[in-house]
Amino acid sequence: MKTRFLVLSLSFAVLAVIASACGGGADEPTDEAALDPELEPGGDALGASGEGAALDDPYPGWLTYDNPAYGFSFRYPSTWTAVDEPNAVKLSQGTVQLIIGYRSAAESVQISGTGTGAGDFQDGGQVTFLSQAFPTTLLVSDGRVTGVYYSDPNSEISAGDLAFSLALIDFGTDPAVQNIPAPLQAEAAQVLESFSVTSGATAAPAQPAAPEAAEAPPAQPTPAPAEAAEPADAPAQPVQALPQGECTNNSEFVQDVTVPDGTTFAPGASFTKTWRVINNGTCQWTTGYMVVTLSTDTWSAPTTTGISRSVGPGETLDVTLNMVAPSETGKRTSFWRLANTDGVPFGTNLYVEILVSESGSTTDTETDDETDGETDGENGDDTPTDGTCTDEAEFLEDVTVPDGTVFTPGETFTKTWRVQNSGSCTWTSEYQLAFSEGDAMSVSSPLPLTTTDIAPGETLDISLEMTAPGTPGDYSSLWRLVSPDGTFFKTRVFTEIEVQ
User: Which class is domain 383-500?
Assistant: First the structure.
């Protein structure tokens, strides 16, 4: 059965790992050398030509990745490039990356993703990892495979004292050409099959790890993976893992630099949208960071666009997208968000709200530095109307999790608000609930508000399955109702918790 999903981040960062490594050996290996568990898999005879490799090596010419700190290793083709990051290693072939996340049982870092790209999920067969068979799920968009997830999307796989997550993703900026060809999918499966751990642990599905207050990518900038393949005679030197980083990603909206809300465009008109944001987290944003869409219609902009420069904590960045007004007339909104190098969204939602009219553009798209900014991290507070009715909501009570409730790091809970439809429009399945500011607590945004019609005067219980951040402290999560045309309600709902 096919299911439709929005980009809500992506791991991205969705991640994983792998099974059964076969050792290489010396230049003239004996049977004992090939079977000796103390020998490093692949030895020093892993040139692409395979000359001198062990006769029974199932991966001739492949290189070896070894992580002695966490006790695992695997083999990978010399045509792929390995780049280490804290709690993750990325194998790159062009725009395609096999992302392997890992952590010990004592760590509470987030290694799995919190969402996927847009497309349909399809069965992709099975892959073997640590002697266990796990299902493979393909993310398909317009007949092209743009992601491959092993076990379940956004999940972890446990192996003794370790947990892993993995995904194969095409990070190309042009969604029209994103595609992971079958040969790359097959090579990735072989990498997973070659995986071994020194403890001899076997694999089993695990519950998602407790997330940090925001996704924690590298504390120091990591060079982008090289596009070119390694030389055929490259030595099989193990890649050493980097130490775990300790920083958090967060962003705050500062202002609309261009295209203030309500700007009018003719159908198909081109324009440039620029938001100014500030890095109010503790991580350095590298050029591997990106802005990703949260909408099904990107208005001809790429679904992911890399940021223009590195941005340190406390610095501002102008995020710019070249867009084309949709053909449908009326008020239209497109949602976006910053994401780390794994594609996992963080910080305040960004969006552009325009009026598409046959009369064409009537508003200057440049705003003053001191005016026309978004309010409280969002694009205004105007009560929406479709011309015949108004959308309004009134908060009634916290049904669950009163403000100040204490949770342990990574603890899951269900937050429920009760609201009343105090407007004159009936809320349908086209209405949404969108994250506004604070910490999303592992909840994807936007998401459907209701599956049944809520008439004026009726009440609705809104429930979210949330996860407390992994770092002690006080946290809030603010959400707003959104009308079908993308306009935010004035009323906000929020939860405030303490993690200790």
Answer: mainly beta
As given in the structure block, the two tokens for residue 127 are 């892959």
Asked, colleague to colleague, whether 4-206 and 249-380 share their fold, the answer is no
Residue 496: predicted pLDDT: 87
For the ranges 198-212, 225-239, 324-338, the maximum mean pLDDT occurs at 324-338
pLDDT of 78-126, one tens digit each? 889 888 777 888 898 888 889 998 888 888 777 765 445 667 788 888 8
Residues 6+ apart with CB under 8 A from 462: 416, 417, 418, 419, 433, 449, 479, 493
- The closest alpha carbon to 310, from 282, 293, 340, 288, belongs to 288
d(CA 278, CA 188): 37
pLDDT-derived band at 360 (thresholds 50, 70, 90) equals low
Do 92 and 75 touch, CB atoms closer than 8 A?
no
User: Do residues 333 and 486 make contact, with C-beta atoms less than 8 angstroms apart?
Assistant: yes
The Cα–Cα gap between 178 and 211 comes to 29
| Other CB atoms within 10 Å distance of the CB of residue 443 | 19
The mean pLDDT value of the chain amounts to 74
Question: What is the structure's pLDDT at 6?
Answer: 38
Arithmetic mean of pLDDT, 362-384 = 38
Domain residue limits, the chain: 4-206, 249-380, 383-500
Residue 438: partners with Cβ closer than 8 Å, 6 or more residues away: 475, 476, 477, 478, 494
Structure tokens at 388: 């015949």
Determine the topology of domain 249-380 in CATH. Answer: Immunoglobulin-like (2.60.40)
Tokens read off for 189:
């499966």
Burial class (CB in 10 A: 0-12, 13-18, 19+), 131: exposed
Would the pTM count as exceeding 0.90? no
Rounded to 5°, angle at Cα 326 from 324 and 327: 125
Q: Are 135 and 24 in contact (CB under 8 A)?
A: no
Q: Are 357 and 266 in contact (CB under 8 A)?
A: yes
Q: 246-256: per-residue pLDDT in tens?
A: 688 888 888 89
Query: Which regions of 244-384 does DSSP assign to beta strands (E)?
Result: 251-256, 263-265, 270-279, 290-293, 304-306, 316-324, 330-339, 345-356
The 10s digit of each residue's pLDDT in 259-298 is: 998 899 999 999 999 999 999 888 999 988 999 887 666 8
Q: Which residues make Cβ contacts (< 8 Å) with residue 163, sequence separation at least 6?
A: 102, 103, 104, 105, 111, 156, 157, 206, 209
- Pick the closest to residue 204 from 69, 72, 70, 16 (CA basis): 16
Please give the CATH number for the structural domain made up of 4-206.
2.60.120.1690
Q: Which two tokens stand for residue 226?
A: 């090289």
